[in-house]
Amino acid sequence: MNKSFSKNTRVIYILEALVFSYIITGLLLLIISFLMLKLELSSVVISAVINFIYIASAFTGGFFIGKKAEQKKFIWGLFVGVIYFIILMLVSLMMNRAGTLPLGSLFTVFIITGLSGMLGGMVS
To answer: What pTM, to 2 d.p., does this model score?
Structure first.
């Protein structure tokens, strides 16, 4: 019974980490959208800030799950980062009806979110 409780709590902790990551994403995207409204930001700056948002969100999710995990914190952080990426890309594909997403950017974001989640787990 203790083992099944442990598995259930892992799932709950992963879901909490993902919700926390997406709350951070939403807040940071609101801030950047406000800055875009008030300032004339170039596309390079916007792209860099969006990459920073991916890093910060995956890092906080990895950090959160790392605090809850007892062993292999970096693996759990990597897992949260990858799940964060998968959900992010599924939502992007559903919202982007014009065409496919560029494969190079997808791979870059996958690496960024995975490593950021892993780093968050390692730091915790």
So the answer is: 0.86
Residues 88, 94, 98, 100, CA torsion sign = positive
* Alpha-carbon Rg for the chain in angstroms: 16
Annotated domain spans of the chain: 2-123
pLDDT tens, 21-74? 999 999 999 999 998 888 888 888 888 999 999 999 999 999 999 998 878 899
CA dist 18 and 24 (Å) reads 10
> Do 75 and 65 meet the contact criterion of CB atoms below 8 Å apart?
no
For 107, counting Cβ atoms within 10 Å of its Cβ (0-12 exposed, 13-18 middle, 19+ buried), the class is exposed
Rounded Cα distance between 115 and 45, Å, is 22
* Amino acid symbol at 47: S
Residue with tokens 């780093």: 119
119 close to 77: Cβ distance less than 8 angstroms:
yes
Helix (H) or strand (E) run with residue 55 in it: helix 43-68
Cβ–Cβ under 8 Å, residues 75 and 114: no
Locate 94 and state its tokens: 């559903």
